[in-house]
Amino acid sequence: MNAMHVASAMLDAGMIEYALIVDGEGSRYTQEVTLERLRRPDATAADVFAEFASLTLGSGAAAMVLSRTDKHPEAHRIVGGIARAASQHNLLCVGSLDRMTTDTAGLLSAGLDLAEAAWIDALKSFDWSAGADWYILHQVSKVHTTMLCARLGIDPAKAPLTFPHYGNVGPAAVPITLASVQDQIVRGQRVFCMGIGSGLNTSLTEIVW
């Protein structure tokens, strides 16, 4: 979603005519070395709790092509979006290819606070108070999605889920979830996308289908 914002700005400025955005996520190696580490005799319950989130990751990829509306008036339109950060929470989730440690409770709490703050800012900048037809949210867990919808006043029926099938696919989760319902979205409907990443960072984008 950050790439969508950057590419949109470059397109609006006339710097490029097309942008190809690609993301790929592979969790197998990280999960294999995590399981190997946690099965050692010296592994503790604290180690399991700290690294459990690694075992919920998924693998997947997504790509999209962006261009200007005047070149492709028939295409779905990115209306705009915002991004916010709460970098004081940068140690709540720290990861590398070999290991990821997560304070799951702390990350959930801080992530919800950041999402709400970004949502309030978006309501001031965009006409989002009327709501959307679809909400494509970052896919982490049932608890996260339920609490996020409650905090932002989102109808859960409008927020499709893919984590039960694919796990947490990170940055690829939003486009994968969007693709899973693309045949159900009616032309002209408003689609709000929200991505949340460790750091903490969040991005919100509106697409008119």
TrEMBL record:
Ranges for domain Beta-ketoacyl-[acyl-carrier-protein] synthase III C-terminal: 133-202
GO BP: secondary metabolite biosynthetic process
UniProt keyword terms in alphabetical order: Acyltransferase, Transferase
Repressor is among the record's keywords: no
InterPro entries: ACP_syn_III_C, Thiolase-like
Keyword Acyltransferase tagged: yes
Signal peptide (residue range): none
GO molecular function: acyltransferase activity
Record SUPFAM superfamilies: Thiolase-like
Cross-referenced PANTHER family: 3-OXOACYL-[ACYL-CARRIER-PROTEIN] SYNTHASE 3 (PTHR34069), ACYL-COA:ACYL-COA ALKYLTRANSFERASE (PTHR34069:SF3)
Protein name according to UniProt: Unannotated protein
Lineage of the organism: unclassified sequences, metagenomes, ecological metagenomes
